[in-house]
Write the structure tokens for this entry.
Amino acid sequence: MTNVASPIAERGYAHPEVLVDTQWVADHLNDPNVRIIESDEDPLLYASGHIPGAVEVDWVRDLNDPVRRDYIDKARFEELMSRIGVTPDMTVVFYGDKNNWWATYAFWVFQLFGHTNAKIMDGGRLKWEKEGRPLVREVPNYPRTRYVAKERDDSRIRAFRDQVLKHMEARKPLVDVRSPEEFRGERTHMPEYPQEGVLRGGHIPGAKNMPWARAVNPEDGTFRPAAELQQLYIEQLGLKPEDEIITYCRIGERSSHTWFVLTYLLGFPNVRNYDGSWTEWGNSVGLPIEKP
């Protein structure tokens, strides 16, 4: 049985500094150098109650361009960070619902702009709530800052359609983190969601399936120890640390979670997230798909 209560530093991660536990967050609620950020799939959760002092970053409203199928640009990222009172030197700590899949998605977008002083609260909302820690409805109002961001750099951690096609043709590792039913083409969306948004079911040829949620403990949403993650991704999938790896799902949020696991917890240096994912691939003319 996994000892989910073990200290993060003892779990054998390559970069344990990117994770903090709920007690660390509780101890830093009034730290002026820390900003707690909630990012959820459910847009009603933050308003219903959040960690005291936490601000909300909504994945649609705050991170996506309203016109183009892309993320916000440098100017809009600077405006977001200035509005929520963040400076370039400030530590941002993300948490959210769904075992942190939207928290890791926001973390990933922040990395596009070089805000590397970022962490994830292990266990997310689920663990905070299960421990009976306080939730408030009061929305904090921090003094506005003048944040200056780096130019957005997609090259290191983001993959685009044509790059994925070349990656596939070169038979390099592709990790499909969706449910087995989506991978087999039996569904076009997650179970218990409307089956919409894509014309074809299946997966990118050559991809291997490892559902994102296998990386966390279902009891409290905390990440599994490194030894268990190695068993999943190295022993079962056959990935090697030196591999060039691309992760994908349906729209890039679940695959950002696996990107986080591979990059920070296992220390793989060359992992990119294909955020176009199956919504783009399954709807594109001329792209191959595979079914069992």
Remarks:
- The beta strands are 19-20, 34-38, 55-56, 91-95, 118-121, 174-176, 208-209, 245-248, 271-274.
- The longest strand covers residues 34-38.
- Residues 40 and 96 are 5 Å apart (CA to CA).
